[in-house]
Input
Amino acid sequence: GNRVVVHNCGKSLILEGVRSAVPDAYMAFGSRTSGPGLSEALFTYQPTVLLLDEVDKVNNETLAVLLGLMEHGEVLESKSRASRGIVLNTMVMAACNRSDKMPAEFLSRFALHAHFPPYTRQEFLDVCRGFLTRREQCPVELASLIGERVFDLGLGDVRKARAIWQLMAEPTLGEVDR
Output
């Protein structure tokens, strides 16, 4: 199959990793993507991979575009008296926090559903350290400390660790605690 949906931990990082590895991948966000906007992007870029983050937040117009793309590879668009169509061979990878309220006909189009459990403390520290050092050029000792603080304070996810690094005035241990 050529469709994957990812649930829970690390989903956005997985999509970002695919985006950096696939030159013509197109990334969209469910809460910020309209049906006409997605159609236009598909016509314009004709991506081999469509990455959808927050797919559980897409509206009905966007869902209609996705259903056509995933069922037959077709993207159809009608504006006033003009219409156009294209057939694409696009792999769809999507990420969501919860799929229980998403339409069954949409979920059934995904060949693989990957559910990731929450990170253990050590897994979270490893991911933070790797992400902050490789993607954000954060020194390893600070990346480890930021990961520890974020996890131990229950602040949530790797994005919080990234935000702390980006807010720091200088790269020091004291600045992490501030």
Summary: Residues 121-135 form the longest helix (15 residues).
